[in-house]
Description:
CATH superfamily: Ureohydrolase domain
Number of helices: 8
Number of strands: 8
CATH class: Alpha Beta
Helix content: 25-40%
Radius of gyration: 17 Å
Number of domains: 1
Structural class: alpha/beta
CATH topology: Arginase, Chain A
Amino acid sequence: xxxxxxxxxxxADYKTSKIVVVPVPYDATSSxxxxxxxGPEALLEASVQLEWxxxxxxxxxxxxxxxTAAPIKEDTTPEAxxxxxxxxxxxxxxxxxxxxxxxxxxxxxxxxxxxxxxxFENLTVLQLDAHSDLRRSYEGTDLSHACxxxxxxxxxxxxxVGIRSQCIEETDNFDPKRIFYALDIFHDKDNxxxxxxxxxxxxxxxxxxDLDVFDPAYVPxxxxxxxxxxxxxxxLHFLRQIFTEFNIVGFDxxxxxxxxxxxASDFLAARLIYxxxxxxxxx
Length: 283
C-alpha cells in the first residue's frame, strides 16, 4: 500500500510523526455490495494526488508527520478483528500518536471506539452515517457493520448525524434528542441542528464517519448507498466546529467500496481525512 499523501522520509516516519493512519481491509460482515476490503488501498492510492497545501487554512498539516501503519489483516472472526484493532489503537494512544483508522466496513470502528473509551473519560461517539447501525444483532453476529452504534452505546454516549435509514427494531434503542436525521437537516435552512447536536457532546469525542453519510452524488462507491445524504461542504462546516470546540481524540473513515472505473469517491475520502487532520492540528 502507498503511504498516505505519498509522504516519505521524516514526514512519514513513525518516530517523528504525530499522526498514524491504520488501514483495516475488512469486509467479512458486509451485507450488500462487497469490496470494502479494497477501500484502504484505494484511499491511500488516491491520497498520493493530494496537494499538501490547504487553501482554507493556508497550512500544511503533513509537516506534523503522518505515518501509515501496516494494514491489520485479521479476518478469522469479527471478534478477532475488533480485538486486533482495539489493541493497535490502544498502542497508539499509549505512544501519544493520533489514530486515524480507515476501513473496510464499519465493523472496524468497534475496536477503535473501545480503545478510545478506555483511554478517555467523558467520551461521546459522534457518528456521521446514513444508517443508525443500532441493531443488537444482524446476520448472526452482534459485531456486524449494522450493530456498530449498539456496541458504542455500551462504552460511551452516542450522537448520530445524517441518518436516513433505520429498521423498526432500532427505534427503541436511541435517544431522540441525540439523533439528527438527514431529512430534518435538509429542511433546516438556518442550520440550527448544528447547535443542538453540539449540545449533546462531551469534552472528548471519537468521530466515526461512514462514507454513505454523503449523498451518492458525492460518494457512489460505498457498500450501502442511500439517497438524500449530506454534501461535502455541509459536513465540513459542521466538523470544523467540532474540531475547534471539542477534543476529537481520533477518528475513522469507513465503507469505501471502490469502483476501479470511477476514482472520485476514493479521492473524496482521502481529501476528507487530510482536511480533518488540518482542523485538528492547524487551527
